[in-house]
Amino acid sequence: QKEVEQNSGPLSVPEGAIASLNCTYSDRVSQSFFWYRQYSGKSPELIMSIYSNGDKEDGRFTAQLNKASQYVSLLIRDSQPSDSATYLCAVPTSGTYKYIFGTGTRLKVLA
Amino acid sequence: NAGVTQTPKFQVLKTGQSMTLQCAQDMNHNSMYWYRQDPGMGLRLIYYSASEGTTDKGEVPNGYNVSRLNKREFSLRLESAAPSQTSVYFCASSPPALGPGANVLTFGAGSRLTVL
Q: SS in 3 state form for chain B?
């Protein structure tokens, strides 16, 4: 059973809107959470990391973590067509170096 | 600074052939990983190496072997390729769990393997 779940999408939003991407995880003791962006045919690249409950903002991106609900989300404000990509949620299994990735959510920002 | 370099970028094999995917990083990272990515399946961990001299199985290790040759290099070998191993393979590395950039993965460009 997959330990990190994401809606595969595609999630379509108009340019300028807020895109909300969600991820749930099963390991209750996980301490760190990552969002990677992957353009078609390219390798994943880090967008955000979050370690504590609450919000973490970086430019147009906000990561939100709720450990009690085992839920992490990524908000993209003022979405641009260049944000169109697949967004991968990654959770290292606690006590190991094993990163478990969700299947990713494909985001399409419509101009 | 090249980051993570994988070779080859593309390879076509026949069933039963063997090959090795090479990976090298120049960031002095301790940990290295091999993932495969298939449509609808996301990234799945094949093997990882927490540090030089150690390797461990991930989610889908069957049919693969790895070698952590030194701190920089981590190779993935297919001894007898099967069509089910057709995939895009990514090598990644990460710094130690403490300190700047802790646990952040840096990926190579990927290797697209087709097994006929």
A: CCCEEEECCEEEECCCCCEEEEEEECCCCCEEEEEEEECCCEEEEEEEECCCCCCEECCCCCCEEEEECCCCEEEEEECCCCHHHCEEEEEEEECCCCCCCCCCCEECCCEEEEEC
Which residues of A are less than 8 Å from B40 in CB distance? 8, 103
Which one of A97, A100, A106 makes the best mutation probe of the B interface by having the most chain B beta carbons within 10 Å?
A97
Spatial separation of the C-alpha atoms in residues B80 and A51, rounded to whole Å: 41
Q: How far apart are CA B21 and CA B78, in angstroms?
A: 8
Count the residues in chain B.
116
Point out which residues pair with B54 in neighbouring strands: none
CB A20 within 8 A of CB A73: yes
Secondary structure of residue A43 in the 3-state scheme: coil
> How far is B6 from chain A, CA to nearest CA, in Å?
12
Q: What is the pLDDT of residue A52?
A: 87
Please list the ranges in chain B whose pLDDT falls under 70.
1, 97-101
